[in-house]
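Hi C.,

You asked whether I'd gotten around to modeling the 501-residue construct. I have! Everything is below, sequence then structure, no commentary in between.
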Amino acid sequence: MDVSSALEIYTLVLVWVLYDGLWKILADTGLVYIPLVAAILKNFFFAWRVQGDEGAEITLRNNWMDILAMMTVIAVAGMPMFTVKLSDLSYVTPCGGNTVTGGSTGTLYDNAFAAINGKTAQVPLWWTMLLSIANGINGAAVALIPCSPDLRTFAYRIDNARITDPELRRQLELFTGDCWQKARAKFIASHTVLPASYPPDDLDWIGSQYFQDTDGYYGNANLNLSIRASEELPGFPYNAARDTEYLPGFIPAWGRPECNDWWNNATSGIMPRLMALIDSAAITQATIETGDIELAKNALLRKLIAPEQAALGRNLEINSYQNNYNANAGNIAQGAAGVGLAVELASWIPKIYALRQAAPVGQSFILMGIYTFLPFILLFSAYSTEVLYTVTAAIFGIKFLTPIWTLAVWIDNHMMEGLGIKWYSWMSFQEDKATTMVILNLVAMLMFVVLPIVWFMVIGWAGLTVNRTLDAFKDVTGPIESGSGHASSVATQVAKRKLLK
């Protein structure tokens, strides 16, 4: 049987183990028979009021009908029947992804739920059929949605990638002072015009392609005139022709590389070490969108480095030398608006990502709760067929949220692309898109919250009272706000420092 997520593999087995135990308790104590006895007594007292042969006939007929209906519900929806275990359940990653089974999903759930490995449960006929049908419909519906790269996930992962290697962080600071600032000062002093083949903001960050390509900046044909590191750096061997500042006969442990080698060296360079922190799939997608792998790498590196400047305490990139800072009221208002929008963006991005990740988790646990309470729902409803139908519709409705959220992700990705928002660029490079990005984030949040509400409204229009299940989803979205609060505050501080410097 296929399920909607790797987590559901474990929650499904766990909850039906609990169900079997609860049903056995109710059966052993005789509580499952109380509705049957109550129905017989109700019909008996009705016959006693009517009296006569007619009353006896009505009692017999009503008893037969009530008990038949109840026993049918007990037999098909209450009594455990079909065996289910971890190896019977699988999850297929959408768009031709891998198929994983219980116990070997490749996630941390394998260890977290190791206690239920080897356990088996019995599922009633009705719920086995419902789960099979619902999962089959979900799989077919998800397959109808075209495959597309998850741009927001790429963007979130890069935004939250952090440089944890203290040596690399130190070299970033040294490179900024030893190479980039000197090269930029030389460019400005020479009154050189940046060639049109380079992006207008190419000089605004430490990995400037122009400085790498042009002799006299990060590289120099004359090693004696090259801009180099101010101290020995691990991983760069001593070069007597280059490192001429030492006394004769003294050989240091490491050398002082020129900036191009320092940045690009395949073994110890800053750029390859930074690129190792970026998901290879993100590099591939950015290359497809930009049409140039170097442009893609530079854009992703800038996005990776930008949040680090607050922690490093240094400006790893600054505004273009061509910018004018006019102190008129219009520019001040525009700057304030830009800061406000950036702060809003920084707080929404982690919330949306958290909501997307929490949605299937919340779905699994809400279904787990419903399955757990099924013995009591059947018992307290006196094995009512109406209640059985309502619960069936509720479970199907919650299960069908999987393709709804898949559609929301697809729309979110294509809206981002259609509105011209570059997920691989840091927000300050898209100031003209700031308002559009706020709208996009708002729409994304609504898609994950409002679409399920509309879906349950549709079920309600069909005459079913399953709209109460929305209250459970409100309880799920509440913790998402607080759970992503820390990430929001961090991103907000970065945006403020970025735009207020």
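If it helps when you're writing up: The first strand starts at residue 82 and ends at 85.

Thanks,
B.
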